[in-house]
Amino acid sequence: MGLLTIDGYIHRIVDDRINKYLQVFGAVVIEGPKWCGKTTTAKNHAASETSMTNPAGDFQERTIARLEPALAIKGDRPRLIDEWQDVPKLWDAVRYECDQSKEKGLYILTGSTVPKTKKGKDDVDSDSKPRHSGAGRMKRMRMNTMSLLELGLSSGEISLSGVFEGRQYAALSKLDLAGVADLVVRGGWPDAIGLSTEAAILISRGYLDAVINEDIHEIDGTRRDVDKVRKMIASLARNEATLATTKTIINDISDVGGDTITYPTFNEYIDALRRMFFVDDIPAWNPALRSPVRIRASVKHHLADPSLASAALGASQERLIAEPKTLGFLFESLVTHDLIVYAEAMDACIRHYHDDVGLEVDLIVEKSDGDWAAFEIKLGFDQVEEAVSSLISLRDKMVDHGQKPPNAMGVIIGTGGVGHMREDGVQIIPIDTLGV
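RESULT FIELD:
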């Protein structure tokens, strides 16, 4: 039985996890933003497919799925069901088949949005919402746009898992300020590979326009104020990689755009953006279940790709070079994006740290067994000493409170650096040398 392998396919980091999950679960559900490559990746693991977005025969495959879900999921296995959320009944059909057969690796589902599970008077086709979670039979996993390693723009000489294990690395960066700005505005869109920076920017702007003018309204059939959506996304971009509160963002929208948005409207809009995987919030890290350290629980709003923030701000490469403070925030977005991808490959999650006395550390990588590593992100090498001070302060605070010390500490930089291990145990990591 052959797979639907695509010629010239670029290996994605999630491929290894898909293979592993297909050996354990009846179905694997790949979720993530549109245009990140979910369908292409899924085809390299599938033997047959049906797509709810295929227009052939006046969307015949979608019609069949709506009328007879059990028929739509028949085919060689693993069977790919692309954009399943357009016909939510498919979820229950797949779950039922997984329960009946007990076999592994039967289905691969891809989805660019998460349907609401709670019925309400404004829901579209509420009777077709999935009725079962799929727990134990269906494994959900996140896929992101491409990391620098996948794009071939990072050497991968410094391994995140290796840093976590205490290995010491030496690696040379090739990036300057213009190079960092270029990485930010291009983003990780597979369709941008081989294109000029100007063309790549058009892709992220096109994605942004699609979200504002179409996708956010189609997700649940609710028509939203286009102007408010645009201003809200622009404010999220201005506050990218910060701990801006809902109040801060609402005030920012009013100050910059002369418009107002209510708290209920903000919460409803941000929920829609989350369900489209446009916003990927970074939660606060709690170092232990009963830690005496008081943590501020605010999330960091993080857009799914750094180019979306630059597109929302209308920022070109030249403008970012002229505004290094803005570039610094968007560089943190770039690093966060890649670290999420690399951490997931080692079954770890990403958090941020901010306590009640003002100590902050940009990102914490935590494994399920409680092992953790701390990372600060700085655009230039001249900011390393400040970053190291924060990392050591966090380490000492955790030890003083009887918590586990970090497995590793690192400063991830954009320009001017050579990757090396300092005498104080902090690894310096140029972003274009980081990998899994």
